[in-house]
Amino acid sequence: MITFNKPSITELEKKYILDSLETKKICGDNKYTKKCNELIKEKFGFNPLLTTSGSTALDLAALLCEIKPGDEVIVPSFTFVSTANAFILRHAKIIFADIDKDTMNIDPSDIEKKITSKTKVICVVHYAGVACDMDKIMKIARKHNIKIVEDAAQAIGSYYKGKMLGTIGDYGAFSFHETKNIAMGEGGMIVVKDIKDFEKAEMIREKGTNRNQYFKGFVDKYTWQVPGDSLLPSDILSALLYAQLERFDEIQNKRLKIWNYYFKKLKMLEEKKKLRRPIIPDYATNNAHIFYLIMNSEKERDNLINFLKEKGIQAPFHYIPLHESTMGKKLGYKIGDLPTSEEYSKRLIRLPLYYDLKGDEIKYIVESIFNYFGETNED
Ligand SMILES: *Cc1c(COP(=O)(O)O)cnc(C)c1O
């Protein structure tokens, strides 16, 4: 069986985890968290705050946005539940926007239609690590004085016009869940643009205290400052992340190689109008988080999933649009409200993509797709 996803764990990850245990300082913000912070700063140019997950990074962003009951937050419907949960838990009213069919990213023209005097935040999702149309979105935000949260859970190392995703809006939330390009099991980070917000984020993350300033020697005791939570990952997990960060380029090169192989080999099937490959706009880079295909119909997509399953290949679909879920219906949404999300989510299939995927496995996956269409792979 070729599984859909598998994290890449080497001797380096094991070595750092063991070393972290040896330090006997295994709570957050110790040796490996600090090493991660330094390496992230060096590689990506910002000061992160590691969190227990991408979801809690979004929670932290929602807290920093100071959502009040009744505030409206615009999110795409085609996303993971956490994008909406972070805000609904703060009693925001969730307003779903539709997506652009080329990128599966939130459609700026639909955002504009959904803005009211109550709109407080727009939370965009860079699906598959490919940038949303950020100039258009930032322009809307400035015009209406709205905060931007970037759900960059899938977007590590991906750029929009030279700017790393997650650093363009007010807050960026990343995930290092097992399923992401680099992983710490469960974990994430937040990027905060404004330095004043950064200090507040540090406090919220440390149970609402100024413990970080105490550690830095700025104050001689730490106390309760703001309502907070406990959002630091254990240093053992940071040790795992540190190894993955050191291997980042190696992991990315391999993922990109696989992504490009699929892209090149499946071109012929696109030319024959059997399927559509991902579209990367000129303003965006590709971090090879997901390789997906858009099939001509839901039936064709389901048939291909089943065909590949019989061949021993796991190729799943992705999000059911949130407005179609039980919770979405409770919020008053119904089928037909967001047609592009509905249509394209039904036609999308993802192919296996991970560091340890072997050359002959990738070939076999491509061959199997050609087989499905009764076509032969000519080169
Ligand atoms: C993975 C993911 C999340 C959640 O991250 P966790 O670390 O699993 O909590 C949120 N949003 C999107 C778009 C994701 O892909």
Description:
- The chain has 379 residues and is α/β, with parallel strands linked by helices.
- It has 15 helices and twelve strands.
- Helix 3 (54-64) crosses helix 7 (195-205).
- The longest helix has 18 residues, at 248-265.
- It is globular, with a radius of gyration of 21 Å.
- It starts with 10 loop residues before the first helix and ends in a 7-residue tail after the last helix.
- The protein binds pyridoxal-5'-phosphate.
- Pyridoxal-5'-phosphate binds at residues 53-55, 79-80, 82-83, 125, 151, 153-154, 175, 177, 188.
Note the topology:
Elements: H1 11-23, H2 31-44, E1 48-51, H3 54-64, E2 72-76, H4 81-88, E3 93-97, H5 108-114, E4 119-125, H6 134-144, E5 147-151, E6 159-160, E7 163-164, E8 171-175, E9 188-192, H7 195-205, H8 211-215, H9 235-246, H10 248-265, H11 267-271, E10 275-276, E11 291-295, H12 298-310, H13 326-330, H14 339-347, E12 348-351, H15 359-372
Helix pairs in contact: 1-9, 2-9, 3-4, 3-7
Pyridoxal-5'-phosphate binds at residues 53-55, 79-80, 82-83, 125, 151, 153-154, 175, 177, 188.
Question: What is the helix fraction of residues, given as a range?
Answer: 40-55%
Bound molecules: pyridoxal-5'-phosphate
Q: What class, by secondary structure content?
A: alpha/beta
The number of distinct β-strands equals 12
Low-confidence stretches: none
The fraction of residues in strands falls at 5-15%
Evaluate the radius of gyration.
Answer: 21 Å
The biggest sheet, with number of strands, parallel, antiparallel or mixed sense and barrel status, is:
7 strands, mixed
Order of helices and strands: HHEHEHEHEHEEEEEHHHHHEEHHHEH
**Averaged pLDDT, please?**
97
Number of helices: 15
Main-sheet strand order equals 1-9-8-5-4-2-3
Overall 3D geometry?
globular
What is the rounded distance between the termini? 25 Å
